[in-house]
Design goal:
This protein has 232 residues and is an alpha/beta fold. The chain is built from 8 helices and 12 strands. It has helices spanning 24-32, 51-56, 77-93, 111-121, 134-142, 162-169, 186-193, 214-217, and strands spanning 9-13, 35-40, 42-44, 47-49, 64-69, 98-102, 126-129, 153-157, 174-178, 197-201, 209-211, 226-230. The strands form 3 sheets. The chain has a 5-stranded parallel β-sheet with strand order 5-2-6-1-7, sandwiched between helices. Strands 8-9-12-10-11 form a 5-stranded mixed β-sheet, with helices on both faces. The protein is elongated and about 60 Å long.
C-alpha cells in the first residue's frame, strides 16, 4: 500500500445497464464511498454523456460524483488516461474513500484497465469488484447457452471487415462481436451466414432491443452499445 494511502481504491463493475445487476458488494462499496469517479464520453458544463452515470444515479449515493472525461475515440489516449488517473490518485492520497466505476465488467475492454496499471505503478492498492460483462447478459437476454461442455469461444472487438468475422465463424465455435457499429450491412451479412445469433442493443436500459432474426435488424441504426453473440 502506498504510504500516503488510508483506504484502498475501490473499483466497481456496474454491469451492462440495469442498476439491479450491480453486485451487492459493489453497491455497498458505492454507498460507502466519499467520492465516485465515472467515465464520461462528453463533459460540457452540466451536459454529461455517461452510461455509468445513468446507472449509478438511480441510487441515492452520498459520495461526490466526479466525471473522468474519456471520449470514445480520438488521439492522445495515454495523456487522457494520465489525467483521469491523476484526479483519482490525488483524491486517494488525500485520505478519501474513493470508488471508480466501469460499465459492464471492470477489466474487460474498460477504462479501468488503464487506471489500474497506473495505480499499480504507484503502489496504490485497489479492491476490484467485478461486474457482469455485456456478452454474458446477451446470453441470458437471448436465452441461449454461450458455451457448453468442452466448447471454446472467441471475442472480436471492432473488427475491420466482415471477412474477418466470416473466418472466425468457420471455427464452429461461439463468437462474440463487440463494438460492431463500425461495420455497415449487418442484415445482409447475417442472412448469408446461416448461423444462430443473438443481437442486442443497450441491454438493461429502457431502450433494450434483442433479436435473432436479420429481418428485424433491417433499417436500424446500430448504436455503440450493441453486440452480437453467435452460438453453435
Ligand atoms: N466493460 C464492458 C465492455 C465495454 S466496451 C463489458 O464488460 O461488457 C464497449 C462495448 O461493450 C460496446 O461496443 C458493446 O459491444 C458492449 N456493450 C457494453 N454494454 C452494453 C450494453 N448494455 N448492451 C449492449 N452492448 C454493450
Amino acid at each position: 500500500m502506498n504510504e500516503k494511502q488510508t483506504y484502498k481504491l475501490t473499483a466497481v463493475g456496474l454491469g451492462p445497464g440495469d442498476p439491479e445487476l450491480i453486485s451487492v458488494k459493489g453497491l455497498k462499496a458505492l454507498q460507502n464511498a466519499e467520492e465516485i469517479f465515472f467515465p464520461a464520453s462528453k463533459v460540457d458544463g452540466d451536459q454529461i454523456n455517461s452510461h455509468s452515470l445513468k446507472i449509478i444515479s438511480t441510487y441515492e449515493l452520498k459520495g461526490k460524483l466526479t466525471p473522468l472525461h474519456i471520449p470514445m475515440t480520438g488521439k492522445n489516449r495515454e495523456e487522457m488516461y494520465d489525467a483521469a488517473y491523476e484526479l483519482i490518485k490525488s483524491s486517494v492520497l488525500e485520505g478519501k474513500k474513493v470508488a471508480v466505476v466501469s460499465e459492464g465488467e471492470l477489466l474487460f475492454y474498460s477504462t479501468f484497465g488503464y487506471i489500474l496499471r497506473r495505480a499499480q505503478r504507484d503502489a496504490i492498492t485497489c479492491d476490484c469488484i467485478p461486474g457482469i460483462p455485456a456478452f454474458a447478459h446477451a446470453g441470458s437476454a437471448g436465452q441461449v447457452s454461450i458455451v457448453e461442455g468442452e466448447e471454446s469461444f472467441k471475442v472480436l472487438a471492432k473488427p475491420a471487415t466482415f471477412e474477418q468475422i466470416e473466418k472466425e465463424l468457420q471455427e464452429e465455435q461461439s463468437l462474440v462481436v463487440m463494438k460492431m457499429k463500425f461495420l455497415k450491412g449487418w442484415p445482409e451479412f447475417l442472412r448469408k451466414q446461416n448461423r444462430n445469433f443473438v443481437y442486442v442493443e443497450k441491454l438493461g436500459t429502457t431502450e433494450e432491443f434483442v433479436c435473432s432474426n436479420p429481418d428485424e435488424m433491417e433499417g436500424r441504426e446500430i448504436p455503440y452499445f450493441s453486440l452480437i453473440l453467435f452460438t453453435r
